[in-house]
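Figure 2 data, in text form.
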Amino acid sequence: MHKFSIVSILLLLVIGGSIAWQAGASELANINLRDDMQDMGSQLGTRLGLIAPPSDSEVAQAVIRKAREHGIELEPDQVIVRRVGSGPESSFYIAADYKTSVNLLLFSFRLHFTPSSKK
């Protein structure tokens, strides 16, 4: 009976660790994407006159590329881009809405994330 309880505890620890690892990795990817979106939304290069202001669709494609770098698959309809202001002082409000799965052998569940450039 003692061996069974040790094996059961170890099994629960492995399952719990796997859930925590996958959920934590998804949360970390979301945080990194949100930070990238905040940087893109500030348009610092445009304000300094270093680059021309990008179009809304170029910003959306940049968000999709950044998301892919973090292991997040986004479609264009999952990204919202709104220009705030005009001229060199303009910025972007950028948001995304996506779900990711945490899969285990017997069950899975989905995590819903909505990162945005708003602080």
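Caption note: The two ends are 54 Å apart (CA to CA).
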